[in-house]
Amino acid sequence: MSPVELTARRILHEDSELLGVDKPPGLVAHATVDPRRDHLVAAVSRYLRARDGEVGHLAQIHRLDRDTSGVVLFSRVPALDGVLGAAFAERRVEKVYLAVVRERPDAPFPDGTTELDAYLAPRKGPGGRTLAVRSGGKPARTRVRALERAEGRVLIEARPLTGRTHQIRVHLAELGFPILGDELYGGQERDTKRLLLHALRLELPHPTRGERVCVEAPPPRAFLQRFAGLARDTGER
């Protein structure tokens, strides 16, 4: 498979300390044991080298699953790697995701805001699945609400309040609404070609300036073509 070539539109935020990138789906976040496998850090490095002639310091502060698209943050200053990592660990970063699920006529997706709370044991199940467990796991909370309903599908806003592996995917599956395209957690669908989970927005304190920084990745076409309200909100036609 050819390496992914990022374009300038994938750069969501850039200053001397931070770089925010819109990760495409299907690209792993970091290097794996297979040196031939492309990954986001390599793709961003290629982009910076082609644009600037060099890469400089580039540290990925958090990760997304391979098939999830959206905002990923990098540090550009070595001394700030730990500061930014601590902001995530101490839950000072607000994260907002979009997901699409199939509506259930017998039990529709709840109206209003629902807080999902379950202990998760990462990568204990078949195929590396994260499991909801009664004991031995880590606490995980996700706040979800339905934004729009169309053609038997529901657009969900998900706000993870903790940062566990596959957290949103597991919580929605446990609620009975696996994310469409999620073969690992029961959301497979013949006409859905990707996992319909997108990291829409990160908001965090800037590590040197103090003010809040909001980095947002436009919703992908796979979301826009299903929900007219989302397209209107983003100015898509």
Question: What do these coordinates show?
Answer:
Strands 1, 2, 3, 4, 5, 6, 7, 8, 9, 10 and 11 form an eleven-stranded mixed sheet that branches. With 237 residues, the chain is α+β, with helices and mostly antiparallel strands. The chain has a single domain, classed as Pseudouridine synthase (2-Layer Sandwich), CATH 3.30.2350. The mean pLDDT is 92. The chain contains five helices and eleven strands. A hairpin with a 6-residue loop joins strand 10 and strand 11.
SSE topology:
Layout: E1 11-14, E2 18-23, H1 40-52, E3 59-60, E4 69-75, H2 81-89, E5 94-102, E6 113-121, E7 131-133, E8 138-150, E9 153-160, H3 167-175, E10 197-205, E11 212-216, H4 221-224, H5 228-234
Parallel strand pairs: 4-10
Antiparallel strand pairs: 1-2, 2-4, 3-4, 5-9, 5-10, 6-7, 6-8, 8-9, 10-11
Sequence stretches where pLDDT stays below 50 over 5 or more residues: none
Number of domains: 1
Structural class: alpha+beta
If you average the pLDDT, what whole number results? 92
CATH topology: Pseudouridine synthase
Report the CATH C-level class.
Answer: Alpha Beta
Strand content: 25-35%
The number of helical segments is 5
List keywords for this structure.
11 strands; 237 residues; alpha+beta; Pseudouridine synthase
Provide a concise account of the structure shown:
Helix content is 18%, strand content 32%. It has helices at residues 40-52, 81-89, 167-175, 221-224, 228-234; strands spanning 11-14, 18-23, 59-60, 69-75, 94-102, 113-121, 131-133, 138-150, 153-160, 197-205, 212-216. The protein has 237 residues and is α+β, with helices and mostly antiparallel strands.
